[in-house]
């Protein structure tokens, strides 16, 4: 960008300089001539009104000459110059108005009065040109404080300026240029009067060169107005010296200015390229990070131009992409989790089918064997025993089916808790009393330990918590060592919850199996001995009930055996909407 910008600016600069050297002179001449033609057309429109008043015509000529820095003459039909002095000063002196025309020849331009205004006092030395002493040919203009002596043969007039027209915004010596009109007019008439007398040209323009100074002038002649003897022409002469000098000086100026311009171009190009390229580099790096999915904080361009808008848009895009990617990643993780859960569910389904087949096959086989024995009349003396075994196995299958139906309700979240306050120690005592026969058969005892004397009330579904207590006590009794003690502990935990623990003395559970005992049909007995009792679904039902209550639960090996525990929300006397 720096190289391209530098070369482009230098190329444009060189092109401009070349165009100035080759075409500026011609362009200036064309513009100058074209401007004079337009001004002459406007003069021609104003001339008929001013032609009848010599003073108005002089003012019109002086205004034209000052405005366009030209020398001008009015020509008659014979191409003779009308004697009109466009520059003058009128003074009021001794009760009369004195007209002072400014001659084109013999008058140094440096003696003309400068920056005068209406009413200013002025002293003029000169010669009266009429018998009434109203027209004064000036020799010198002096200010009021002059002490210069009056020359012989001259008169000194002092008065106040009432009207004036003096050279303004003219070249360095306008009176000299005005004096050249006569010489230029003579050469033009010698070369062109024949064509003009035949009436063919309406306007003529050519260039004339002052033989003494070598300055080039543009000369334009056009018809003013009138027919026959009243026919007049406008002769205009304008110097072309300024453009020639300007082009020559410009060429020298470029030679000296070129090194400075070169340094400035290089410095400005470097600055410009850095200003433009810095945000582009920043945006490019940001885009590269986005392409690599790097959505860290993007640098911000704080300008209020298009770069700033693009930077803010990219920052917004980065945040949106980061959010979308995180959501997509989370959805992907959730999908993978769902897929793992689906695979696990499928595995559980297969295990469930296998377990159900296993659990139902044995009792069905037993029932079928005893039924066939009864049907064949084998061992009539054992009929009652066979019937009792058939009923027992049928009850076992019925319990298994009921537990499976209960578990399926929990898995599809079709269970709605009916919470209400109740005494937890009382519920646990009732549950323990329902196992009196099993306790006696194994010579077991139940010991309940409660912290404090207060009544520990919980806010939960009483029937479901009773089901939890029955399953845990049944499990503890089934695995307890004969003649041991089953302990039930109730206390308040540090998390402001009611903590319940059920301990039994017996063999510990392997550490790798502690997390699996809550699965369906999972038994710690490797041989899946049916004599231990149970359907293998009790702890799975306990897990679902406690999770619905938002409880913490688990199992751990202790010194004497195994402890199962869970927590419940205490009742605080508040109405809780489910």
From TrEMBL:
EC top class, as a word: transferase
Localization, UniProt: Cell membrane
Stretches assigned to the Histidine kinase domain: 355-572
Domain spans labelled HAMP: 274-326
Entry EC number(s): 2.7.13.3
Catalytic activity: ATP + protein L-histidine = ADP + protein N-phospho-L-histidine
Regions crossing the membrane: 6-24, 253-272
Protein's UniProt keywords contain DNA damage: no
Coiled coil: 314-355
Keywords: ATP-binding, Cell membrane, Coiled coil, Kinase, Membrane, Nucleotide-binding, Phosphoprotein, Transferase, Transmembrane, Transmembrane helix, Two-component regulatory system
Membrane protein topology class: Multi-pass membrane protein
Pfam families: HAMP, HATPase_c, HisKA
Main location, first listed in the record: membrane
InterPro entries: BphY/WalK/GraS-like (IPR050351), HAMP_dom (IPR003660), HATPase_C_sf (IPR036890), HATPase_dom (IPR003594), His_kinase_dom (IPR005467), HisK_dim/P_dom (IPR003661), HisK_dim/P_sf (IPR036097), Sig_transdc_His_kin-like_C (IPR004358)
GO MF terms held by the record: kinase activity
PANTHER family xref list: HISTIDINE KINASE (PTHR45453:SF3), PHOSPHATE REGULON SENSOR PROTEIN PHOR (PTHR45453)
Protein name according to UniProt: histidine kinase
The organism of origin for this protein: Paenibacillus glycanilyticus
């Amino acid at each position: 960008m720096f190289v391209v910008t530098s070369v482009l600016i230098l190329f444009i600069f060189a092109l401009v300089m070349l165009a100035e050297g080759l075409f500026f002179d011609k362009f200036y001449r064309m513009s100058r001539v074209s401007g004079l033609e337009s001004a002459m057309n406007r003069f021609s429109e104003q001339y008929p009104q001013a032609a009848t008043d010599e003073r108005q015509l002089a003012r019109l000529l002086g205004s034209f000459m000052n405005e366009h820095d030209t020398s001008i003459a009015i020509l008659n039909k014979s191409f003779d110059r009308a004697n009109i002095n466009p520059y003058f000063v009128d003074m009021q002196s001794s009760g009369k108005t004195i007209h002072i025309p400014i001659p084109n020849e013999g008058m140094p331009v440096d003696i003309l009065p400068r920056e005068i205004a209406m009413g200013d006092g002025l002293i003029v030395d000169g010669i009266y040109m009429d018998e009434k002493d109203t027209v004064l040919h000036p020799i010198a203009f002096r200010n009021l404080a002059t002490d210069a002596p009056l020359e012989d043969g001259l008169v000194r007039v002092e008065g106040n300026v009432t009207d004036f027209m003096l050279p303004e915004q003219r070249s360095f010596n306008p009176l000299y240029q005005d004096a050249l009109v006569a010489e230029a007019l003579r050469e033009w008439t010698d070369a062109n009067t024949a064509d003009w007398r035949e009436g063919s040209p309406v306007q003529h323009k050519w260039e004339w060169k002052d033989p003494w100074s070598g300055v080039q002038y543009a000369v334009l002649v056009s018809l003013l107005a009138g027919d026959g003897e009243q026919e007049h022409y406008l002769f205009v002469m304008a110097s072309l010296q300024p453009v020639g000098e300007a082009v020559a000086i410009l060429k020298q100026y470029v030679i000296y200015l070129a090194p400075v311009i070169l340094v400035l171009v290089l410095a400005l190009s470097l600055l410009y390229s850095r200003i433009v390229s810095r945000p582009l580099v920043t945006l490019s790096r940001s885009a590269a990070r986005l392409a690599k999915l790097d959505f860290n904080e993007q640098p911000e361009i704080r300008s209020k131009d298009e770069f700033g808008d693009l930077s803010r848009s990219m920052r917004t895009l980065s945040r949106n992409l980061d959010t979308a990617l995180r959501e997509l990643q989370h959805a992907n993780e959730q999908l993978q989790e769902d897929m793992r859960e689906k695979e696990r569910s499928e595995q559980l389904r297969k295990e469930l089918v296998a377990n159900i087949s296993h659990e139902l096959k044995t009792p069905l086989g037993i029932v079928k064997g005893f039924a066939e024995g009864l049907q064949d009349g084998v061992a009539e003396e054992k009929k009652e025993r066979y019937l009792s075994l058939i009923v027992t196995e049928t009850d076992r299958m019925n319990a298994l089916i009921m537990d499976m139906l209960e578990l399926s309700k929990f898995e599809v979240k079709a269970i709605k808790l009916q919470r209400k306050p109740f005494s937890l120690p009382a519920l646990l005592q009732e549950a323990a009393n329902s196992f009196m026969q099993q306790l006696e058969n194994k010579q077991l005892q139940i010991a309940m330990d409660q912290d404090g004397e207060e009544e520990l009330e919980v806010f939960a579904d009483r029937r479901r918590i009773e089901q939890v207590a029955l399953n845990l006590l049944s499990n503890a009794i089934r695995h307890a060592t004969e003649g041991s003690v089953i302990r039930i502990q109730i206390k308040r935990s540090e998390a402001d919850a009611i903590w319940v623990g059920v301990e039994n003395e017996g063999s510990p559970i392997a550490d790798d199996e502690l997390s699996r005992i809550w699965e369906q049909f999972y038994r710690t007995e490797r041989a899946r001995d049916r004599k231990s009792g149970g359907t293998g679904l009790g702890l799975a039902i306990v897990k679902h009930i406690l999770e619905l209550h938002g409880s913490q639960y688990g199992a751990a090996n202790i010194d004497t055996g195994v402890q199962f525990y869970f927590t419940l929300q205490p009742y605080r006397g508040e109405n809780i909407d489910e």
